[in-house]
Amino acid sequence: MEEERKKESEFRIKIDRDSDSYEEFVDLIKTSIAAKDQTSLKAMLAGAHPADVVTLFKDLEREEELYLFRLLSYEDQAYSLIKMEEETLESYLEELSVDEISKTIGHIETDETTYLLSYLPSAKRELVLANLSKTDSFEIRSQLGFREYSAGRLMSKDFATVTITDNVRKGIINVRKKAKEIEDIYQVYVTNEDGVLEGFIPLKDLFLTPINTKIAKITNFSVFAFHYDVDQEEVANTFKKYDLVSAAVTDDLGRIIGRITVDDVLEIVEEEASEDILLMAGVSEDERLSTPILQSVKRRIVWLNVNLLTAFVSSTVVAFFEDTISQIVVLATLMPIVAGLGGNAGTQSVTVVIRNIATGDLSFSNWWDAVRKEFTIGVLNGLALGTVTFTMIYLVKGNLTLGLVVATAMFVNMIVASLVGSLVPILLKSMKIDPAIASSIFVTATTDVCGFFFFLGLATVFAKYLV
Hints:
Shape: globular
Organism: Leptospira yanagawae
Strand content: 5-15%
Helix content: 55-70%
Oligomer: single chain
Structural class: mainly alpha
Keywords: CBS domain, Cell membrane, Magnesium, Membrane, Metal-binding, Transmembrane, Transmembrane helix, Transport
Number of helices: 23
Main location: membrane
Order of helices and strands: HHHHHHHHHHHHEHEEHHEHEEHHHHHHH
Protein name: Magnesium transporter MgtE
Subunit structure: Homodimer.
Radius of gyration: 30 Å
């Protein structure tokens, strides 16, 4: 074990892109691949973690990658595939044969197998499933039948159970049998004779309890379980809230059908966070550095066109006050200040509200608290920024009325920004639309229109004092 850790550590040093020896190591890999020197390649990959091998792939040509990939053990091949970006994974699975995929997925748990097979075209997936044992094929087909992004799709069907009427001796025997096929066992789930979940026993408690003790006496009945159709985001929030390591998944009758572990949840948290960040910017959650340029353009152009439409609306408001702007040219230089700060304030509110919706801290039961808080923040920020703006404009331009007009427009627009920024995500959520998708566009459009309207409208009313 110590020797393996040492080799893994040495390999990580070699693939450190900041090290002076990295390029030399990559060149050595490429030379050995060209010479088909499998002995040298296997020696260089000794102790390498699959995730580190995937990092190395990024500096190799596809043919070189595949050659190196096929030198790995089937288990390491499986975990390398799991660590790849989605688009890279799809292209790999296209090039691997049905037999290669079948042998590879035989070394991982059902949730990981389901994940990999979900990226296969349906025809090839059927061929792979037909290549597996009837038991494995049935389990994977049933899991693929669950809704995407649900607990059922996320769970692993590899878990350890004991019956509540058993004693500890029998429970330990069951766990030892299961341990041969399960990667990690955190908890042993307790069921009744019909498989209905009753509770759980920490693994340590099972092995430290006298063997003739009844399972019921050491069972913790406060067990966390998710229905198979629960959304994965709710699963992640529950794990975070209660510091869970593992949780059961049950069917409609309360029978345990799988388990979710903390490593699965960490991937969800990263996935959901990345998705929200990208969607708020109007970018597809599937976009990666490796995504083809034309495909990225196609995905982004839709929301850019929406932005263009809202920009035309803003310009229409400005055009309505053309006469005022032509008479008081200085207004043209001050307009972006009001609209820009309003947009920034709205983005702040949107970000905070969406974050709280995602973590479960904000729901329809306490939405008014969020709106009231953001309104108060908008008022206070409006007063502060309005005062600063008034002072600076008065000192620079020497016009008291101009300073008051800009400061008042700023104050009103900051309030509008906070209200819209907090209400739009909540309204979208009530309509079952992801708040991250369109909130920022609506907020920016509203603050631009309102900012221009309030500023130029006030300037028109007090025009004779601004000339």
